[in-house]
């Protein structure tokens, strides 16, 4: 059979890319059409994403691809939790706000005082975290007039599907990150929103991942993408990353490692109990009825912000440089809790790390290498704590960890993860998210049979590297130290 190409648009918090994925019946090959930077900046007093700039890149690169070859379908995945608002005429009200804005911290406290933590979790199965979309919507409803002209709320990937096809619906995996959607039942948590006094008339219909929602419309549909279908994939990038993860076997954990580290296990159904709530584990919707039980770990964001700060101070360093400097440092000198609220907002991250260490009585990392080493060790220890917490609630100890995304290229972090957890760590593919996005489209087109078939093709198409654990008692002591810090930070919240 002739090879078929689908377009996967994958937008992460740090960068976006448009990828052509070609399946010849055996191999799934990716061809990056183009990459572009992403980031949020303050506009009208709130951190916002540059939606129109991103759409400009997407439109241009899809056009380039469509002029080069025939594209069967296109689908978009992006970071989770954020939404945009459409007016009745379909125009975008304003640029979507970003989950890192300090308003979210205030709004979470407001939500907890209105309904309590337990009600938030019980209605959604979703980790109570400042970044959740429900807190932005609560702030919009109670403290702005932003909702006055709004007709429809769409999660960010679906803002792109709306531009591409006219669709006014949101996709299940994206909705499940909002903090106002019950993953287990696949319905909006309208009772919770009523209790929070947040309007529900903006919430759209929800479609399943893999839904063909029509042809590409507009200039692209009349031009280079004539005949191309819009197939809504797993719109949440983490859902797509896990679809594209070739697990090491039964009992395998995933870490989708980019701006965030999303670590967890794929299950057939949600697990929302007092124990999962206490462990702050979230249930996110996946492909074909799967659920990811996971924890959001602050991830490489901390390193991204360090790198930007050092650049502002005149030192431009690549990620390869940073990892090299950290490799030369002794391990486990200072440990931080990456999930402390200190590290959520953009800013001078090296200073915040030093202040955190000083406050908790740990040695203060002074050099670039020492700071990076501290971040990498702390992430590895957080992965260990997360693996332990997952095993405690599922009753199933992990057998291996599969790391995907840009962070899977960080060999020091992968080895530290193996050493901290005592598990083999499989790294790759780097572009698991684009592969997962494309894979869901190829299943919808009938080119691949199902999730298992896709993962078999992904495993056969790429090169994976494995790091074996090395025994070292130093990690046990440091793991206990991280637990102390986690408890202290939780109490301070
Ligand atoms: P997102 O989708 O959130 O934008 P990516 O999956 O693209 O993120 O991952 C970006 C991260 O990958 C960077 O912040 C960096 O920490 C890491 N990374 C990228 N390239 C390298 C590299 N050559 N070596 C080590 N880490 C890298
Ligand atoms: C990763 C991610 C994560 C969300 C966060 C906002 O890109 O989608 O799963 O929780 O961004």
TrEMBL record:
Keywords: ATP-binding, Carbohydrate metabolism, Kinase, Nucleotide-binding, Rhamnose metabolism, Transferase, Xylose metabolism. Pfam families: FGGY_C (PF02782), FGGY_N (PF00370). The keyword Glycoprotein does not apply. Residues 254-444 form the Carbohydrate kinase FGGY C-terminal domain. GO terms for biological process: D-xylose metabolic process; rhamnose catabolic process. InterPro entries: ATPase_NBD (IPR043129), FGGY_C (IPR018485), FGGY_Carb_Kinase (IPR050406), FGGY_N (IPR018484), Rhamnulokinase (IPR013449). It comes from the Bacteria. One of its GO terms (molecular function) is ATP binding. Residues 8-244 form the Carbohydrate kinase FGGY N-terminal domain. Belongs to the FGGY kinase family. This is Carbohydrate kinase. It comes from Modestobacter caceresii. The lineage of its organism: Bacteria, Bacillati, Actinomycetota, Actinomycetes, Geodermatophilales.
């Amino acid at each position: 059979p002739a090879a078929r190409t689908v377009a996967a648009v994958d937008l992460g918090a740090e960068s976006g890319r448009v990828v052509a994925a070609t399946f010849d019946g055996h191999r799934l090959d990716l061809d990056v059409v183009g990459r572009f930077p992403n980031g949020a900046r303050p506009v009208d007093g709130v951190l916002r994403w540059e939606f129109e700039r991103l759409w400009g890149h997407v439109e241009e690169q899809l056009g380039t691809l469509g002029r080069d070859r025939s594209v069967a379908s296109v689908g978009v995945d992006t970071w989770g939790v954020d939404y945009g608002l459409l007016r009745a005429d379909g125009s975008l009200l304003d640029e979507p706000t970003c989950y890192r804005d300090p308003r979210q911290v205030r709004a979470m406290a407001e939500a907890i005082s209105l309904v309590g933590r337990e009600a938030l979790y019980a209605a959604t199965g979703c980790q109570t975290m400042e970044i959740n979309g429900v807190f932005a919507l609560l702030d919009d409803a109670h403290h702005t007039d932003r909702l006055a002209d709004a007709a429809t709320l769409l999660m960010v990937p679906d803002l792109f599907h709306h531009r591409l096809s006219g669709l006014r619906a949101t996709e299940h995996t994206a909705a499940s990150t909002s903090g106002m959607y019950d993953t287990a039942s696949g319905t909006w948590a309208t009772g919770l929103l009523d209790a929070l006094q947040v309007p529900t008339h903006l919430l759209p219909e929800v479609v399943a991942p893999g839904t063909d929602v029509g042809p590409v419309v507009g200039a692209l549909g009349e031009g280079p993408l004539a005949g191309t279908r819009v197939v809504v994939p797993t719109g949440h990038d983490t859902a797509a990353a896990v679809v594209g993860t070739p697990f090491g076997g039964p009992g395998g954990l995933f870490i989708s490692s980019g701006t965030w580290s999303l670590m967890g296990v794929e299950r057939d159904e949600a697990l929302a109990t007092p124990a999962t709530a206490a462990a702050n584990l979230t249930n996110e919707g996946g492909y074909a009825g799967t659920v990811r039980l996971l924890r959001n770990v602050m991830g490489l964001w901390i390193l991204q912000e360090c790198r930007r700060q050092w650049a502002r101070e005149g030192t431009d360093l690549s990620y390869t440089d940073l990892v090299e400097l950290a490799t030369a440092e002794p391990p486990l000198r200072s440990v931080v809790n990456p999930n402390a609220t200190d590290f959520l907002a953009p800013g001078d991250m090296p200073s915040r790390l030093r202040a955190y260490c000083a406050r908790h009585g740990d040695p203060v990392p002074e050099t670039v290498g020492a700071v990076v080493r501290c971040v990498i060790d702390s992430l590895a220890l957080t992965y260990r704590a997360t693996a332990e917490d997952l095993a405690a609630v599922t009753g199933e100890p992990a057998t291996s960890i599969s790391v995907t995304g840009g962070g899977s290229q960080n060999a020091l972090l992968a080895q530290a993860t193996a050493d901290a957890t005592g598990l083999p760590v499989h790294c790759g593919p780097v572009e698991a998210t684009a592969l997962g996005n494309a894979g869901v489209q190829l299943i919808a087109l009938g080119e691949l049979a199902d999730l298992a078939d896709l993962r078999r093709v992904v495993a056969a198409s790429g090169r994976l590297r494995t790091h074996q654990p090395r025994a070292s008692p130093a990690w046990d002591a440091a793991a206990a130290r991280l637990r102390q810090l986690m408890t202290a930070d939780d109490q301070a919240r």
